[in-house]
Amino acid sequence: GLWYVSSYDAIKVLDNPGWTYFQKVKGGMLFSNTASANPGLYYFDSKDMSARQVYPYGYSYSTFKKVDGGYLATGAGIGLLFYDEAAKTVTQIYDKGTSWTYFNATDGGLLIASSSSSSYGLLYYDSEKHTAKQVYTAGYSWSFIHAVDGGYLLSSNSNSFGIIYFDLESQTAEQKYTSSYQWQYFCDIDGGTLISSYRSGTGLVFFDDTSKTITQVSNYSYRWQFFCETAGGCVCSSVTSGTGLLYFDKESMTAERVYT
């Protein structure tokens, strides 16, 4: 069972084993059980030392994210929950998928992705309305994010889903580049952003702020993560041994090796 233990007493709060995943909140604690036979999300009131179920479905709510007004909760339970800290109530704000554990901060909200290969897509959480909607239907583990003009670029940490662009005004996402993953090195220069991946053979790509398109500017090497903007371009250096230096020319939209 679950017990409340103080320096002078112990009180049994709930029966059954497996109570875990505790999250401290105002006035108490949120927690859940690891077994589907003991479903729901629970709230422990530290004032009267009692526990009650605040949501009846799902289990193993293992990840909590602090947001304005409360917490987001996710885990093996279906969907995404919002716990209102003032009302001490829980609302399911998205009803599909599990393990929505990647929280990427944006202006006005969060872009949220699942770590589960069976829960595809990208969600947008509105911080003011406490609502979540799906803005992209493919991929998972969208964990790399970079702010650009008008929105955000995202790349997955787990599979070859390319690069997507989230438009902040329209709150829609679109794939802009189809190859590879772990595009995690970014450099903002005049007119756009240079992007490099951790994966071998991916080269260097450029996101254009105006056209919102991505162009492959070099197929050479990978992990270009040191940049120095110059007049008309950018010098790029990789951590990969023996790669030398690349120079990206903005006018011709090409990158060539200038030092070996």
Structural class: mainly beta
> What is the share of helical residues?
under 10%
The total count of strands amounts to 26
Number of helices: 0
- The radius of gyration computed from the alpha-carbon positions, rounded to a whole number of angstroms, is 23 Å
Trace the largest sheet across and list its strands: 3-4-5-6
How would you classify the quaternary structure?
A: single chain
Q: Regions with pLDDT < 50 over 5+ consecutive residues?
A: none
Mean pLDDT: 95
Largest sheet features: 4 strands, antiparallel
Percent of residues in beta strands: over 45%
- Which sequence of SSEs, written as H and E, runs from N to C? EEEEEEEEEEEEEEEEEEEEEEEEEE
Shape annotation: elongated
Distance between the termini: 65 Å
Overall description:
The protein has 260 residues and is mostly beta strands. The chain is 0% helix and 56% strand. The protein is built from no helices and 26 strands. The strands form 7 sheets. Strands 3-4-5-6 form a 4-stranded antiparallel sheet, with no helix packed on it. It has a 4-stranded antiparallel sheet with strand order 7-8-9-10, with no helix packed on it. Strand 13 and strand 14 (131-136) form a beta hairpin. The radius of gyration is 23 Å and the shape is elongated. It starts with a strand and ends with a strand.
Q: Short description, anyone?
A:
The chain is mainly beta.
How are the secondary structure elements laid out?
Blueprint: E1 2-5, E2 10-14, E3 19-25, E4 28-33, E5 41-45, E6 50-55, E7 63-67, E8 70-74, E9 80-84, E10 89-94, E11 102-106, E12 109-113, E13 122-126, E14 131-136, E15 142-148, E16 151-156, E17 163-167, E18 172-177, E19 183-189, E20 192-197, E21 204-208, E22 214-218, E23 224-230, E24 233-238, E25 245-249, E26 254-259
Antiparallel strand pairs: 1-2, 3-4, 4-5, 5-6, 7-8, 8-9, 9-10, 11-12, 12-13, 13-14, 15-16, 16-17, 17-18, 19-20, 20-21, 21-22, 23-24, 24-25, 25-26
